[in-house]
Write a structure and sequence with these properties.
Largest sheet: 4 strands, parallel
Number of helices: 3
Strand order of the largest sheet: 3-2-1-4
Order of helices and strands: EHEEHEH
Number of strands: 4
Strand content: 25-35%
Helix content: 25-40%
């Protein structure tokens, strides 16, 4: 199983759909979304496999990645950014 870590400062349009798509992949064990927006609470929908961390401030990308890695429960970890669209099928490369 793979842990996916994504920090976000802006929570862009379409993020919920992207998170759902990645979480639906059978190799994804968890998706950790670090919400670095000031207002927080931008993801209202409950999504299986999603751990949603509201920071309430911009903790910056590197510390957010590091915190996500510490929270991850899987040995395999992938880090992505909220402005990157990728096909979850690429995760199968990590599993080999």
């Amino acid at each position: 199983m793979i842990s996916v870590i994504m920090p976000s400062m802006f929570i862009p349009d379409g993020i919920v759909e992207r998170v759902k798509e990645v979480c639906a992949h059978p190799l994804v064990g968890e998706f950790i979304l670090m919400d670095n927006t000031v207002e927080g609470g931008n993801i209202k929908e409950e999504i299986p496999k999603l751990t949603y961390i509201e920071e309430g401030q911009n903790t910056f990308i590197n510390p957010a990645w590091n915190k996500g890695v510490k929270l991850a429960s899987n040995e395999l970890i992938t880090i992505c950014n909220d402005d990157v669209n990728f096909n979850p099928i690429i995760l199968e490369v990590l599993d080999n």
